[in-house]
Amino acid sequence: MSHVADTVIRTGCKINLYLAITGTRKDGYHTIETLMYPLFEPHDILRCTPGAPPGHLAIHCPGRPDLEGKTNILYKTWDIVSKRVGMLPGMTVELEKHVPEGAGLGGGSANAAGFLKYLFALPEVPPVSQATLLEIATQIGADVPFFLENVPAFAAGIGEKLHPVAISLAGLKLLLVFPNIQVSTAWAYAAWDQEHSQTSSRRLPEKNPELCFTKQVQSLTRRHPAYTTPPTHDLLFYNSFEDVVFSRYPSLRQIKETLWKAGAVAALMSGSGSCIFGLFSDTESGKKAAEIMFAQNIATSLQSL
């Protein structure tokens, strides 16, 4: 019998350049407006091996047995697709994690999107339209549709209403800072609810937010690297979660302030945290900030965009 080769899938992550909570729906979900930017590093690796009994999925995560249970989003993806198309071919998935959890980078959602595309590419599974694929992705999780497209995008609703945005951070250096803190998204929303009314005071302009985003991203490369405080007029680099998350974890606010003082042209917490990112106009400033974090035993990743 011929051996069926493993399929290796690399799934990245994202940062939120802007995130405003705009309200709460009757079903308990929150509405948001956000600008998400995809990253290819850090990335997780999925190795999908066919051959298990039909309808059977096994997940192995070396060194992380806590991620092998039914709460893994890969099981949810498998279950939703099975209910849509019928019994799936059996397989084993080995998950190699490099994107930190509870960091606001969407690593789990990226895993789900990569696995979803893989399942619908199997010869035994009937193909579906892109619209149907996006509908299924929304059932899995609010960020999953974004990772199907994997391009910069403005998202509204609960995150499922996507509009690609033609912006680029090319030429800038990105420093991701990974504090040893996991922030629960459910807790962050609940904490925000306790502190705010149903609607955020921060809203995007009604006319052409894409143009505003584009102009402000372009302006980053023209800023002097010696800025030590954030500009107050920016549309970008706002996150509704920061106040409540920073109140509980003051060290995260300190990290953001450190990035500004080290020469970042922008700094923000991604998603519901805990990852803080800084954008730098040159490599040396990024390295300086990384060295400060290293001296505090905090992991970082510096990359060119």
Question: What proportion of the residues is helical, as a percent range?
Answer: 25-40%
Rg of Cα set: 20 Å
User: What proportion of the residues form beta strands (DSSP E)?
Assistant: 25-35%
Shape: globular
CATH topology of the largest domain: Ribosomal Protein S5, domain 2
Structural class: alpha+beta
- Helix run count: 9
| Highest-level CATH class of the largest domain | Alpha Beta
Q: For the report, how would you describe the main beta sheet?
A: 7 strands, mixed
CATH architecture identity of the largest domain: 2-Layer Sandwich
Q: Give the quaternary arrangement of the chains.
A: single chain
User: What is the N-to-C order of secondary-structure elements (H for helix, E for strand)?
Assistant: EEEHEHHHEEEHHEHHEEHE
- Mean pLDDT level: 88
Number of domains: 2
**How far is the N terminus from the C terminus?**
46 Å
Explain what the structure shows.
It is built from nine helices and eleven strands. It is α+β, with helices and mostly antiparallel strands. The protein has two domains: about 5-165, Ribosomal Protein S5, domain 2, CATH 3.30.230.10; about 175-305, GHMP kinase, C-terminal domain (Alpha-Beta Plaits), CATH 3.30.70.890. Strand 1 (about 5-25) and strand 2 (about 30-50) form a beta hairpin. The longest helix has 15 residues, at about 105-120. Strands 1, 2, 3, 4, 5, 6 and 8 form a seven-stranded mixed beta sheet that branches. Strands 9-10-7-11 form a four-stranded antiparallel beta sheet, covered by helices on one side.
